[in-house]
Amino acid sequence: LETQIEFNWMRGFTVDFNPETGMSKTAISTKRYLSDMEGMFADEKALKRAIENKNDLVYEFYNIGAPEKPCDLSFGTSVTYPGKVANEFFMTKGHFHTVLETAEVYYCLRGDGYILLENPEGDWSAQELAPSVSAYIPPRYAHRSINTGKVPLITFYAFRGDAGHDYSSIEKKGFQKLMVEKDGKAEIVDNPKWK
Ligand SMILES: [Fe+2]
Questions:
Q1: What spacing in Å lies between the alpha carbon of 61 and ligand 1's midpoint?
Q2: Residue 116 has what pLDDT?
Q3: How far is the CA of 21 from the centre of ligand 1 (A)?
Q4: Does pTM top 0.90 for this prediction?
Q5: Which stretches of the chain score pLDDT less than 70?
Q6: Which pLDDT value is given to residue 14?
Q7: What is the pLDDT of residue 194?
Q8: Ligand 1 center to 137 CA (angstroms)
Q9: How far is the CA of 148 from the centre of ligand 1 (A)?
Q10: pLDDT of residue 134
Q11: Is residue 186 helix, strand or coil?
Q12: Which residues of 143-177 are buried (b: 16+ CB within 10 A; e: fewer)?
């Protein structure tokens, strides 16, 4: 696909998402490589080395162009690939919604991992994902997918069309907690850079 197909948001449409790969034949994904993730991982030297070495694709997701209106829904898949920077698992940048008081639903199609949640008051939790598990992201909570497994973590999401994405708060502050591998298992630790 060279250019995104225009979907008929007024009259209805269908769109395919492959549950094994998370990919669509009729939509174009947005890709985030390690080089797009500067400042996101705790070990900045390890990130720099990984970028110079191979610059892996960390995650991709679909934005299929939902009208930015409260009556519409944006939906699609998000695929976070397996991997680590030093001992920290591959993850999405994570975001608040620009309209803070809007929720989101995830449904896990494949893989193992977590959604890390955190609100502006500092309350946080890690919700575990596995195939067939659905997670609710309440209004006001920033969210980030983390792949702690060996295969792509694939989720299907839906949220209000006008919710928007606020990446800048997370870019500045990070999340309070990091998900790292320790003795072969996923462990939640404090983020030393969190302010
Ligand atoms: Fe979101």
A1: 11
A2: 98
A3: 21
A4: yes
A5: 1-2
A6: 96
A7: 85
A8: 8
A9: 20
A10: 98
A11: strand
A12: bbbbbbbeebbbbbbebbbbbbeeeeebeeebbeb
pLDDT confidence of residue 3 = 75
Distance from Cα 12 to the centre of ligand 1, integer Å: 23
122 CA distance to ligand 1 middle (Å): 18
Amino acid identity of residue 50, one-letter, is: A
Q: How far is the CA of 107 from the centre of ligand 1 (A)?
A: 13
Structure-token pair, residue 17: 């998402």
Return the beta strands (E) in the chain as ranges.
29-33, 57-62, 73-80, 84-85, 88-89, 104-110, 113-118, 124-129, 134-137, 142-147, 153-160, 177-182, 185-190
Lookup result for tokens 């500092």:
122
Residue tagged 């797009």 (tokens) = 36
97 C-alpha vs ligand 1 centroid, how far in Å? 6
